[in-house]
Amino acid sequence: MQASRNSNIWQNLDWITVGLFLTLMLLGWLNIYGASYTFDSTSIIDFSNRAGKQFHWILGTLVLAVILLLIDHKTYDILAYIAYGAMILLLLATPVLAHNIKGSMSWISIGPVSLQPAEFAKCIVALAVAKYMGRYEFKIRTWRDMIIPFGMIGVPMLIIMVWQKETGSALVFLAFLLAFYRQGMSGYVLWVIVAVVALFITSIRLGDEVLPLGTGSVGILTCMLLLTVVEIYFLCKEHRMRYQALILVGSVIGIYGLALILNIFVTIPFDWLSMAVVLLLVAYNIGISLYWHKYKLLILAGFTIFCMGYTHACKYAFSHVLQPHQRIRIEVLLGMKEDPNGAGYNVNQARIAIGSGRFTGKGYLNGTQTKLQFVPEQDTDFIFCTVGEEWGFLGSITVLGLYLFFILRLIKIAERQRNVSTRIYAYIVAGIFLFHLMVNVGMVLGLLPVIGIPLPFFSYGGSSLWGFTLLLFILLRLDAARMEQLR
After folding, report:
1. Average pLDDT in the 169-193 region?
2. Tell me, what's the pLDDT at 470?
3. How far apart are CA 81 and CA 487, in angstroms?
4. Across-strand partners of 110?
5. What is d(CA 212, CA 352) in angstroms, rounded to the nearest whole number?
């Protein structure tokens, strides 16, 4: 019976995904050697260099993958909650056992090996969340149904961000939203995320700029105008009355027009005026919601008031909550400060390396930026600049194409599942890989702040490699068992 079941595993295994995994891991290993190569470098499998160490991690990865496939698929469901509890305890204990590495307390040293528990937490939390949301009676009907799933990802996220001071690993848990959205989570949650990010960027970037007319801040006025647009949009969408939109828009334009005229004679505080306009819209929203018994819009009113307070709190949080190195990275990204030799150094050198590769690249092991060690962390977080320099535009597009095919394959695996828990887990895995890809490439190109996100299967490191392997091969084991689950 056991032999027959093992045989079915290999027959039902998604070998296309396995092939993509092996291809990406092989390319990653070669690029790690290219990133750390010098003219007196030893063999690619010599343990004295980064590529040799990664080779040993790869051998361990292959063994780990086989073990994960041989474990009974029901074990992952049975142990999900137990493993989640144990992982929370480990995350809490990590700063006590860890050494301070560049301000982060997330690495535990075991002899010559350093492991980052946060990398393994993603898989454990994904299994626990999938088990909870995969229950027969679980349905997303209201926001209350999402309290526990959000709590399950919020607890490890806060521990990693606040207790371990590892922002990048904590933000990865936002990738779980892809699975939540697929299971029926309201699209308004995505609106909330976009609004929070937009208000933060606007208040930080424009908060210190003074209005050319009147008094006040450009950032506050801009944020209030955004909230005004959102209030009017959702009010009119809910009540489906076009004339109402015209009246509200006309009223707002009239108020600002009158203020501009009065500003000729007396100074008008436009940021305070803009807040008053938003509060008037909120009051109108509350009144019309109570009159028509459409209480959904009361949530919008509450969120708008929250955003007004949040907008004013952003500047304080930016100045007093974020670490200095985090602030300078955001300032450089938003163009508030030029720091080519400091916080902006990594990104500037990465851009130079990628640009110097041109269309076809300089050739394997021939990257000058790489060989002269201009790019810090070039075999970990900034490994993609090695791809761009040595393999050029063609090589970069090929690698990104492989990742795209890989992620689309994961989504296909997710969609063919009959078991709800497995489908949710598969979407979480796809979301995590997509998040890592977008953020890593984005920060290398200077489109996103540098937050220390590894490129899956490419960046040097055993913790990340094994963490991604756990995510992937548990999914492949569950997928291989889908025919058993139907019987």
Report:
1. 88
2. 97
3. 26
4. 113
5. 38
Asked if residue 191 lies in contact with residue 436, where contact means CB atoms within 8 angstroms, the answer is no
Angle, alpha carbons 324-379-48 (nearest 5°): 120
DSSP string, 384-426: HHHHHHHHHHHHHHHHHHHHHHHHHHHHHHHHT-SSHHHHHHH
Rounded to an integer, what distance in angstroms lies between the CA atom of residue 243 and that of residue 234? 14
CB within 8 A of 77, min separation 6: which ones? 127, 131, 421
Number of Cβ within a 10 Å radius of residue 62: 12
Which pLDDT score, from 0 to 100, does residue 343 have? 56
Question: How many angstroms separate the CA atoms of 441 and 268, rounded?
Answer: 45
Determine the average pLDDT of the residues in 348-370: 84
Give the global pTM.
0.87
Side chain identity at residue 5, one-letter code: R
d(CA 435, CA 456): 10
Whose tokens are 């505080």? That residue is 269
Closest CA to 444 of 385, 402, 395: 385
For residue 58, the tally of other CB atoms under 10 A from its CB is 20
pLDDT given for residue 44 in this prediction: 83
Rounded to whole angstroms, how far apart are CA atoms 235 and 228? 11
Amino acid at 281: L
Cβ neighbours of 271 (radius 10 Å): 21
The pLDDT score that the predictor gives to residue 100 is 79
Candidate from 83-92, 102-111, 165-174, 298-307 with smallest mean pLDDT: 102-111
Per the DSSP assignment, residues forming a β-bridge with 47 are none
- Provide the residue count of the chain: 487
Q: Which of 74, 152, 133 is nearest to 420 (CA)?
A: 133
